[in-house]
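User: Modeling request: complex.
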Amino acid sequence: MSFASPVSDQRLVLDHVVRIAELAKSNRFAEATPDMVDAVLQGAAEFAEGELAPLNTVGDREGSRWVDGAVTTPPGWREAYARFVEGGWMGLSGPVEAGGQGLPNSLSAAMMEDFNAANVAFALCPMLGLGAVEAIDAHGSDDLKREYLSKIVSGEWTATMNLTEPQAGSDVGALKSKAVPAGDGSWKVSGTKIFITYGEHDLTDNIVHMVLARTPGAPDGTKGVSLFLVPKVLPDGTPNDLGCVSIEHKMGIHASPTCVMAYGEEGGATGWLIGPELGGMSAMFTMMNNARLNVGLQGVGLAERATQRAVAYALDRKQGVRAGLPVRIADHPDVRRMLVRMRALTIAARSLAYYAFGQLDRANVGDGEAGLRADVLTPLVKGWCTDVGCEVASLGIQVHGGMGFIEETGAAQHLRDARIAPIYEGTNGIQAADFVQRKIGLDGGAAFDGLIADIRADAQHKELILLTDELEVLVASARNASPDDRLTASYPLMTMAAVLTAGWLVERLGRAINAGEGGGGNAGRRAAIEYFLSVIVPEAVGLGAGAEATAEMIYQAPAEELA
Amino acid sequence: MSFASPVSDQRLVLDHVVRIAELAKSNRFAEATPDMVDAVLQGAAEFAEGELAPLNTVGDREGSRWVDGAVTTPPGWREAYARFVEGGWMGLSGPVEAGGQGLPNSLSAAMMEDFNAANVAFALCPMLGLGAVEAIDAHGSDDLKREYLSKIVSGEWTATMNLTEPQAGSDVGALKSKAVPAGDGSWKVSGTKIFITYGEHDLTDNIVHMVLARTPGAPDGTKGVSLFLVPKVLPDGTPNDLGCVSIEHKMGIHASPTCVMAYGEEGGATGWLIGPELGGMSAMFTMMNNARLNVGLQGVGLAERATQRAVAYALDRKQGVRAGLPVRIADHPDVRRMLVRMRALTIAARSLAYYAFGQLDRANVGDGEAGLRADVLTPLVKGWCTDVGCEVASLGIQVHGGMGFIEETGAAQHLRDARIAPIYEGTNGIQAADFVQRKIGLDGGAAFDGLIADIRADAQHKELILLTDELEVLVASARNASPDDRLTASYPLMTMAAVLTAGWLVERLGRAINAGEGGGGNAGRRAAIEYFLSVIVPEAVGLGAGAEATAEMIYQAPAEELA
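Assistant: Request completed. Predicted assembly structure:
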């Protein structure tokens, strides 16, 4: 079935959750006028609906193919990518100096949500480019910026992130790839990287690889890591010493080639430092934090898409009788419950994700507190919104009954595609660890406490207030806990904090609606918001016991005895 | 990786949850001595590990193929099925008069759990046979029993369930297939049935289809439905007028052919009534209740398999450092949390499912109250154990990190296979409706209240007592609620009741362990049981708000506004 961008929902969240009009008062985002916002939402919607959504099924069915080092994307992909470049979509929030439009990240988020909803396997390619643009812009030399930035901002070339190696997944610091100085300012990079998304493809003439490697004499662990820009094609037009050895056979996102990349098999791939030597992690985190928020948007987009598909099916499919008349399954209480739940989770995840991007935008116009808040929110967006994507996609299958399990229906693809999001760009367990190990203590705890204080000042629903109380106590206790106890509690704490923040934001959205904003569709939004506050928030309170579990409990048996 | 049957866990549950020794005191189950129980568990383990598990991957990769009406199962399937028949596994709990061993259903449950864990797509075929045996034994004429029962009990022929038609899914009463008398006591059956598991295959020479159809002048709805036995090959050796038109392309269980069946395209397929005319639903429910409990066991089996795979990977895979040494990921707190959770859910789901089969066994030796309890438990086993299967399989993917998303790892197949179980044999929403519409009111409410009273008399953990209190209030309120309010609350109520009952049973298991039973592996069991009671039970308390949600809340917006 076709996809329709939720433009009016997106606009409401931008207006009343992000409060984008406040951003437009700054010089930097003066272009983000209401008319511009509408034009972007409308244009992104048309591109997603007209160009990307029609390729989603063929992408899943055909997948990308690897033959002798070359990767062929599915039929129609090249043409769609060319139109993506033509439309200038890659540069929406890109730096003006490099040809971008410099619009807010929160507006770009709406665009990326649409692209994810329409065709997440396609959208992954530009998503990585967005991160690379940030990293090169913030840490790259003027020469590198001149050579590469505008090409990535235009979409003429794509970019990749190369962290993972067979022995170095969550433990990035265990990576072994090497870089040695070539004597002319460039470096010779060698090593094997795995799980490299769009590491090779036929969409563009060049691919800009951002590669983590160790320099001679570098210390062990993450402190010894440097970031290199390693292009597929060198500035003089010759091919670099790198290649795609194979691609993976995956559960979902079949059209997105997941590559094993070999660098320097013939002496060393030529690359250039991004940021200082040994400064790789900091430069990579610029890229990764962007990517983490964007992976959260994959959850939002797939939740939106799955909800639309389920509602359409439930309105069409008739089963049983109510009051003597054949009834659409949407009118059966438990199906309606599922649809309301799907919508509630989707609205809440969107609100949380856009809000986090909005905090980044505020940081970019000088609001340091907002920057810290974005840091606190990043693991919540990545962790919870991707869990939401899986839950909603799974509910979407359930709404379809037996048809949901049949691949041609399309509902199953959403779950298969969504299932990667809790894993890549730092597993959700890593996000939870980041939340309890760094984020609740950021700025001496002030960053997290400020969020709680804002919620407390605003929250009206009694369940929301209850969750605030509960979380405050649990976080205070986590701060004083042993590292292992804190990590044992981390996942439920992350979920509780995300649900609380999202609940606060949808309550805010609900007040705007009650004040007359939104118009068409407000009854649906109101039902979803009430369900979120009355049902989903209390479920998060129920996670409190898990956040009180100690390491002693889960470590009482040797792991061997768990199977 | 290889599969190892959890024989000692199964034995503990049979001994201390089912209390199979009490059953063995009856004449009917006198054969179920401790030695026999061990022999069956050991034999089933060997068959599952040695014959079925090695075919699980090829089954997923190759699937069953349809060509011109014939269905070819994957390489190795025919040989494994022949050995299944040779081993006499089909008749373990089958009627002695038909060549079965007449052992308890609760023991057969352990066998089916193993077969599901090893290869659920294979195990589906005998699973449907078990239901057919019950239905023919209870409702079939002596002639039909003589002709068909021993052949199905031996496994020489397989059997299918034919309810669903394109317009009649959850609403079985909407079916249109017809049967008219042929004048010789047989009937001419015609119509199209969809989603028919193993409707056609190459494992046996004959397939016995159990088909619901309407007789001339029958009333609308389920009251007008009769059950027919329609064999692929007629007693005189000629082919019947029926065939497989196509098979489905599914998310999982690829090796299990899901058939569209056409009956009577050339005048009518010959069939015979099972039970009286218009008595089809009652006969079918005999079959379906058995199948529902068995689908619950698919959740248990896949949870067990996913847990084994995840633990093995987490013990093998090293990432990061603790106390200066490389560490297995099983030793990272959040990974350990996932493993303990997987084990906890698996043990609890097994306890609930086996207990329900044990109640059926008690009913079969004359305990009427146990029969009613089995009725109460059936939707809980089907609904919750299949949800557990999906949750644990998804956690299993997560434990593997990026490798979990790669098909060759095997973890993804478990989720793809598990995802059908909440859908077929009555969606979990239908189970929830059955629970609140019929089961909480069964025998004037005494059946459910008796369960609660037993739990209350026994439960010691404070969270379990809290959940008992909570559920009792919510069920009392559901009994007095409007039908729509009751259905709105149905899913969370079903989950809460299942978690409560499972929690009670694992606490019982824990007491046996503390009294010295079990031996090796008890530390792991203790950790899992403590986690279930301390963490998972409180999560179920958190579902209470959803059980208090009213139809007014979810119906406040037209369904069109939910997308």
